[in-house]
Amino acid sequence: MNGRLLLLHTRARGGPAFALGVAVVAPLAWAAGSWLASRPYFDGPAARIPVVALAPLLGVLLLAPTLGGADEELERGTSLRWPGWRAGHILLGVASIGAALALTGLHAPGVFGAYAMVRNTLGYAGLVAAAAVLLGTRLAWLPAFGYACAVYAARPRQIGGVAGVWAWPLQPSGVTASWLTVAVLFIFGTAGYLHRGCRIGPVAG
Fold first, then answer.
1. Is the pLDDT of residue 31 over 60?
2. What's the domain range around 111?
3. What is the rounded CA–CA span in Å between residue 62 and residue 167?
4. Are 171 and 163 in contact (CB under 8 A)?
5. For the chain, what is the domain count?
6. Taking Cα atoms as reference points, which of 203, 196, 204 lies closest to residue 67?
7. Is residue 192 part of a domain?
8. What is the distance between the alpha carbons of residues 156 and 179, in angstroms, rounded to a whole number?
């Protein structure tokens, strides 16, 4: 990729604002997680569940507006190989979010820490990518936000089993079903985005 073209692409898609947002979310996640885990009336590291569920969501919601350009139809008229650009864009964005948040949970990576942060980042990114294809970037945040809120409100106590599939954002990182579910979401959501890009024009009523 041409360096100048990459720089222009990043600026046009709101890259600086995204990077700034992630730089704010990560230390806030670290501070909130550390505070919750240190409270004597909470259940130690497991008290970080709200942070593990919500911090990756915030990071991915910052990524959602960058998945499409201001004039997507005009961009697609250029000679660029868009599937490759889309792949680089979303993978770099997800890696940035996952790495930044993983650093905040390294002190207890296996107990609602770094591993769960990475897993939830991948799962939410898959939902947002799929929503960008179906709804456009303006509403791409909505399904992931709604799903996360619904799951958090339900707060299942079961670990693994069926809950490992539908309540993956709240499961310990050792639950295999949660990782398999996230893998499916990320692969299919990203594949759809690479192939079709974000929706052009308003969603039909």
1. yes
2. 3-196
3. 22
4. yes
5. 1
6. 196
7. yes
8. 17
